[in-house]
Amino acid sequence: MEAPAERLPKLPLTLGHENAGWVEKLGPGATGFAPGDPVMVYGPWGCGTCASCRVGMENYCEVSGGLGGGLAGPDGGMAPYMLVPATRFLIPLGTLDPREAARSATRG
Ligand SMILES: [Zn+2]
């Protein structure tokens, strides 16, 4: 089965859809985080308002398709910096080092 053309990423694209790191800076109007905060990046980037998103199934977003950075949208985590469009896609890690979070995720 072949993916529909509208779901294919626009190239060039830097891959990386499972990400952890530190906030570098916030865009205009962004709140809730500060530069240096350790975070994970939620993978599915839904619109937040359609029926699927409202029940927490952003991976089935009826507007965006739920594909986040590194899959179909902006560059992913293998790029030097990753632009995340909304702070609701960031998960605070508290005192956990993002590198350790990534290692733990790959160990299962
Ligand atoms: Zn949606």
Write up what this structure looks like.
- The chain is low in regular secondary structure and 108 residues long.
- It has 2 helices and 3 strands, in the order ββαβα.
- A 3-stranded antiparallel β-sheet has the order 1-2-3, covered by helices on one side.
- The longest helix has 10 residues, at 98-107.
- The mean pLDDT is 89.
- Bound molecules: zinc ion (ZN).
- Residues 46-47, 50, 52-53, 61-63 line the site of zinc ion.
Radius of gyration from CA coordinates: 14 Å
Structure ligands: zinc ion
Count of individual helical segments: 2
Terminal residue distance: 29 Å
Question: Which residue ranges are poorly predicted, with pLDDT under 50 across at least 5 consecutive positions?
Answer: none
Query: What is the makeup of the main sheet?
Result: 3 strands, antiparallel
What's the mean pLDDT score?
89
Strand content: 5-15%
Structural class computed from helices and strand pairing: little secondary structure
Could you give the topology of this structure?
Blueprint: E1 19-22, E2 38-41, H1 51-54, E3 90-92, H2 98-107
Antiparallel strand pairs: 1-2, 2-3
This protein binds zinc ion.
Notable traits:
three-stranded antiparallel beta sheet, little secondary structure, 108 residues, binds zinc ion, single chain, globular
Describe this structure in a few short sentences.
With 108 residues, this protein is low in regular secondary structure. It contains two helices and three strands; from the N terminus they run ββαβα.
